[in-house]
Amino acid sequence: MFTTERLILRSYVESDLDDLLRLWEDPLVQPLVTSDSVTLLGPKFKETIRAQIERATFGAIIALKETGEFMGQGAITVLEPKNRDGTFGICLLPKFWSNGYGTEATKFMVDHSFKWFNLNRMSLAVFGNNARAIAVYEKLGFVMEGRKRQAVWMDNRWEDLLTMGILRDEWERRCNERQG
After folding, report:
1. Under a CB-based contact definition with an 8 Å cutoff, are residues 136 and 149 in contact?
2. pTM reported for the whole predicted model
């Protein structure tokens, strides 16, 4: 278990699957985390969630330190260790949006992964309409690397799919600036 100023990041346990299903079924969350149609996912989707958890190099349930309340999840997956490129994803329940929790969790997970998994880069994908997430990633040093225009049909319009990344030397520079 890890803690930040306001958060607990802990390992998944089987009983988290109900909270994770609730998160993934939330009508405000679902369009930001999947390019599939927004729909009720049902109990069978728990197997998909379980498979994602098992694939993650560093996966965490994010909980409020003060109460232990489930807030969401974060994961970093290193698919090709030779290339030392981690893929990051985070998802919080809407009631926790716009309070800096996503920034706090993302910063911790990115820092931890560069320190302990010897990554050279961290990558992510985000939909172009998710301005809140893009602002968090840019604030933490991620750089826009690509834009797949009109990649996803969402809410009766086309949305772009953006790729962002931060390199080890950029991350180290930011750490040195914070310490100096």
Report:
1. no
2. 0.89
